[in-house]
Amino acid sequence: MKLRLESFGELRLIDLAGQPVAFPEKGLLTICYLLDRSLQDRAGSEYPRSALARPLWDSHDNPDIMANLRKSISRIQARQTELGTELLVFTATGVRIKPDAFVCDLSELANPDSEGALEKLRRLVGVLRQDFLAVLADQSVGGRL
After folding, report:
1. Largest CB tally within 10 Å, which of 25, 84, 85, 115?
2. What is the reported pTM?
3. DSSP letter string over 38-69?
């Protein structure tokens, strides 16, 4: 099952029909974090599990946090099994993303393709304007009346 991760605006996973797919929030955050790191490093490396504790819980040396990380990994693995797909690959000591299992707006913007940079910027601005600017427009219209 090919899925799409939308990281701009509301963080969510959707199927090809555009329907939301339930997935643990910590799992979505992990995918975004690892995708960002891999885009920066230009490699699909495996990262230590402990590297996830800092961005997810702002700590890495607390035994309770590491227990929470193990529980989150179990929930993510169970959900991946239910979906019949593997977005994150966990080993005994590490984790990596499986980029061929999903598409993501973040990687689309980072990859050079036939689409020009201006069109990418237009799409990004369109996504960013959706909720925030709509609320501001509603407030300004309401203030004028």
Report:
1. 85
2. 0.72
3. HHHHTS---EETHHHHHHHHS-SS-HHHHHHH
